[in-house]
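Q: what does this look like with protoporphyrin IX containing FE bound?
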Amino acid sequence: MGSVVLLVQLLLLLATMAAICSSFTSALNASYYASTCPDAESIVQTTMERLHYNDPTLAPAIIRMLFHDCFVRGCDASITINPTPHSPSPERTAIPNHTLRGFDAIDAVKQALDSSCHGGTVVSCADTLVLMARESVTLLGGDRYSLALGRRDGVQSNAWEVDLPAPFARLDDVIASFAGKGFTADETVVLFGAHTVGGAHCSSFRYRLTNPDDGTMDEAFCSDLLDTCGVEDQTLDTDPATFFDPDTPFVVDNNYYKQLVGNRTLLQVDQEAATHPATKQYVAYYAASNDVFVQRFSEVMAKLSNVGVLEGDAGEVRKVCSRFNTG
Ligand code: HEM
């Protein structure tokens, strides 16, 4: 009997040691490029500052790009792959990605990195994108957060794997989908707060203006949106777009939650967060405190940057972000 207890204790000890070891074997670390590309972070910072100065709408687009990358196959830059005759339907061609912007900026930052890193291609596209998103948050007035680096780039990208929530998704489903990636309901509400910057095309919410199923939209807000959008569907090139937070569309602040509380938000799924029993307390909490939201947003963006990353020898480090090294 005594030897069985000893054996169980030994097994438990081994399991604990294995768990501790595995938590230390992550290949990601803050000084990953210290010898191969010591200036990587400052190169991303200065290039993003230049790009942002020329186009302030880029930073919100990059924050969105990170979400669309990390929620499909993890943060592996599978989103940046271009279609080719051999592989015509990468993630980028899936419907939720049709309005993504910022691919040229990723190429520009990657080129700046490659031309200064020792030995050319050193920094992965996945790391390039998480660093660009961190700069975007900072440039929009958010808190700067630390990132461990060393992500590898994916070698697969398929439109059929893109399962991002639609603007009219039920919040229960969205909470479940975010939980599947490791986010609590609180963190999900914090990530929704990204909609305090940038904007949306009318096609994402026009149906709410004439037939507000949810019956929640503020009347004056609805009437302004009708003026902007009209009632007719448009093609993407001609469809108007409008800011989520018209007061401060380029500032990471808690205005988005105030919009939610006042029934003045564009997307149906966002609006549902203000009344859903699993999320309404968080919406009220962040609507009441800008400082808490700004801090939480950076914490959860850092967490988003680590979803399902490829490490060690997995995947590859792409030379060009829009195509696999094998062509
Ligand atoms: C249920 C979840 C979500 C849905 C349904 C959703 C949907 C959308 C839609 C429809 C747009 C407008 C796209 C356009 O018309 O151009 C948009 C924009 C945006 N989304 Fe989300 N989103 C979600 C979650 C997130 C998350 C988690 C983030 C980041 C952490 C994010 C960041 C953004 C940003 C920054 C924009 C503005 C982009 C720009 O101005 O170019 N979204 N989202």
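The CA atoms of residues 89 and 268 lie 29 Å apart. The chain has two domains: 40-161, 171-304.
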